Amino acid sequence: MKATKNYKFWFCTGSQDLYGDECLRKVADHSAKMVEGMNKTGKLPFELVLKPTLIDQASIRKTFNDANNDPECAGVITWMHTFSPAKMWIIGLQEYKKPLCHLHTQFNEEIPYDTMDMDFMNENQSAHGDREYGHIVSRMGIERKIIVGHWENPAVIDKLASWMRTAIGLMESSHIRVCRVGDNMNNVAVTEGDKVEAQIKFGWEIDHYNINDVVDVVNSVSEGDVNALVEEYYSKYDICLEGRDEAEFRRHVAVQAQQEIGFEKFLEAGDYHAVVTHFGMLGGLKQLPGLAIQRLMEKGYGFGAEGDWKTAAMDRLIKIMTANMPNGKGSAFMEDYTYNFVPGKEGIIQAHMLEVCPLIAEGPIQIKCQPLSMGNREDPARLVFQSKTGSGIACSLVDLGTRFRLLINAVECKKVEKPLPKLPVGINFWTPEPSFEVGAEAWILAGGAHHTAFTYDLSVEQMVDWAAGMGIEAVVIDKDTTIRNLKNELRWNEIAFR
Ligand code: MN
């Protein structure tokens, strides 16, 4: 996938000059050991960089501004080793613009019962200093992540690692550029939205081109390049002729190969990381891009169909947040399609006409070439597969006219009970939490779309924190959801997010 910056996170320890040089030497020594130890776990996706201990307003202000100005700094992690009077943090916090984490920890895990004296207490009082610091951050209304626990506890390291990915989502959001070569599908409401407001809130640039601008690039792709890519497809995927003539099948696949190369060239030339198409606006394209778009998604491009730029940007965002994740299971643009209402086996078939990201696939991936019931083009080639099982989240960003709402549903992905030999698309199948009935009712109540950005690899908490960092409403549907409480939450949010 397209690389992001070599991001780092700054670790900033707060103290003051009340306790003397020896105490400050120990504070600095402890902080260095902690940063080294946390880096050495190998669990953090990005490096922690130790900064000099902050003991006065000038050093705090300078450090936060240096963090703002360093393009590789993705966030600051703060911790008060001793007491650190919080008025001196005000100006630095006011000027700070990046993600903020408050690691509420302590150098020693256990109370040193036999040796503890008042010097030790004064030196190790984050229980005290972190409350003073936390007060001013709350009073100033600054969004931050608070992580509580000993820095050597693996659960704390995991939380810090998760938050780092949220911070990358906040940082990278303003670099997302969506290329639209199809407008929002006529008369569809939920995929529409205010692109100006999206740029103000999220930093997304959402541009439009005529599809034939891309067609020109697609048509200029050489036959040699197309044939080489077709060979790659044939070596990587199972070819499923289903009675079609072999040469004719290959010609259909070659159309998609040419589209993959052409679209990617066009997107790279314009520095776009997400793309939107529309089956009704194909210009000179011979087929609806299916396999081509699936391959681009696999490379890390966000995608939304029928002009859905919001889901395209969210898909790209999730792909950045989960980049290089060990044992990552993938993310995809998805659409709620068809239900299974059989008691005990309830769930939703997730798919799209063609464009389902193969990152979520499990088992063999086939290339099929089947008619598309919509549009007036050749039968498009597409990748067909089933998806991994396990928990995931489905995200839908909707525009409510006066604000954006991010809807997050925890879902459990399952194998479909029986094969679907006649269905020529990649699919997922999931049951929403807390149950099929409550999950679907809650989703509809909250105004969620039929298009979602889905991932196995992010938690509800990470996306809630991302939404909070962006200053938008997040509504969660998970094990704790009841319709009565959700209705109240939506009612109260009408006021809170006015
Ligand atoms: Mn759709």
Fold and architecture overview:
This protein has 498 residues and is of the alpha/beta class. The protein has two domains: 8-173, Rossmann fold, CATH 3.40.50.10940; 177-496, no CATH class. The chain contains 15 helices and 19 strands. It has a six-stranded antiparallel β-barrel. A hairpin with a 6-residue loop joins strand 11 and strand 12. Helix 6 (154-173) packs across helix 14 (460-470) and helix 10 packs across helix 11 (291-298). The chain is elongated and about 85 Å long.
Present as ligands are:
manganese (II) ion
Radius of gyration using CA atoms only: 25 Å
SSE-based structural type = alpha/beta
Q: Give the strand content.
A: 15-25%
- The number of helical runs is 15
Low-confidence stretches: none
Count of domains? 2
Please give the largest β-sheet. 6 strands, antiparallel, barrel
Q: What is the β-strand count?
A: 19
Mean pLDDT, nearest integer? 96
Termini gap = 38 Å
**Global shape:** elongated
Please give the order of strands in the largest beta sheet. 11-12-17-16-15-18
Helix percentage: 25-40%
Layout: helices, strands, pairs:
Blueprint: E1 8-14, H1 21-40, E2 47-50, H2 57-69, E3 73-80, H3 90-95, E4 100-104, H4 118-123, H5 126-139, E5 145-148, H6 154-173, E6 177-180, H7 195-202, E7 205-208, H8 211-219, H9 223-236, E8 238-239, H10 246-269, E9 274-276, H11 291-298, E10 302-304, H12 309-321, E11 331-340, E12 347-351, E13 361-369, E14 381-387, E15 390-399, E16 404-413, E17 428-432, H13 436-445, E18 451-455, H14 460-470, E19 473-477, H15 483-496
Parallel strand pairs: 1-2, 1-3, 3-4, 4-5, 6-7, 6-9, 8-13, 9-10, 16-19
Antiparallel strand pairs: 11-12, 11-18, 12-17, 13-14, 15-16, 15-18, 16-17
Manganese (II) ion binds next to loops.
